[in-house]
């Protein structure tokens, strides 16, 4: 397999929507597409959005119905990014055309490695991924679970692919759904906090634009500070919280609202729904 630190082998993105497109752009920006990349989308309009990327062949299925088959047959790594309900039919379509040793990576939430094995065979190398939306700006977190047939070299190639758009955490498949409740759903939790922080500022008399600026930039700045520091977040919080000061009083209110329990309950609710979706309910 190609050295994953300098380039990647031929890759096919089957269903290069928002997430697949973000990862694709990350590969191009990192200069890791020497082997060539083919991306498929259903419409000509969607395919046109990726057509100008260097080293990328963008295929519209409405113009070439065999686009998925042709892309998969020419690739060493195939990323499956279609909607979960469409995955089984797509796997059946490409299975007879995969080359020996091809790595197939799922981007589809809730679709298990067992499903991939049923449609592709146990000998096909499969991995399940769970990227999140900050991948769109190169600051994502991707959970990665390897199937039984995946070798360390296979995992290294896929890891290098996702590291172009952020960090990668390798977990057993049994933890993928739990991971999704933190990093996958997590951006929504942050956005909700910014919404409420903005609303609090408005209630204190700030105009909406000012309130939004105060809230958003405080979160962005705090996140950047945390990212640039080796200090634990709890210690960073303590450094802002002067004894008997205003921040200490505010933090006491937040802690009194049992945030730890609230976040745990939220994550558990998301996990329960993920299991319902995986069961088809």
From TrEMBL:
Q: Does the keyword NADP apply?
A: yes
Where mainly located? cytoplasm
Instruction: Please list the reactions this protein catalyses.
Output: L-proline + NAD(+) = (S)-1-pyrroline-5-carboxylate + NADH + 2 H(+); L-proline + NADP(+) = (S)-1-pyrroline-5-carboxylate + NADPH + 2 H(+)
Query: Which compartment or compartments is the protein found in?
Result: Cytoplasm
UniProt keyword terms in alphabetical order: Amino-acid biosynthesis, Cytoplasm, NADP, Oxidoreductase, Proline biosynthesis
Enzyme class (EC, first level):
oxidoreductase
Return the SUPFAM superfamilies for the record. Answer: 6-phosphogluconate dehydrogenase C-terminal domain-like, NAD(P)-binding Rossmann-fold domains
Q: What is its EC number?
A: 1.5.1.2
Pyrroline-5-carboxylate reductase catalytic N-terminal domain residues: 11-110
Molecular function (GO) terms for this protein are:
pyrroline-5-carboxylate reductase activity
Gene3D superfamilies with a match to the protein in the record: NAD(P)-binding Rossmann-like Domain, ProC C-terminal domain-like
Q: Which InterPro entries match?
A: 6-PGluconate_DH-like_C_sf, NAD(P)-bd_dom_sf, P5C_Rdtase_cat_N, P5CR-like_CS, P5CR_dimer, Pyrroline-COOH_reductase
- Domain Pyrroline-5-carboxylate reductase dimerisation: residue ranges: 173-277
Where does this protein act, in terms of pathway? Amino-acid biosynthesis; L-proline biosynthesis; L-proline from L-glutamate 5-semialdehyde: step 1/1
Family per record: Belongs to the pyrroline-5-carboxylate reductase family.
Annotated function: Catalyzes the reduction of 1-pyrroline-5-carboxylate (PCA) to L-proline.
What name appears for this protein in its UniProt entry?
Answer: Pyrroline-5-carboxylate reductase
Can you name the source organism?
Answer: Microbacterium phycohabitans
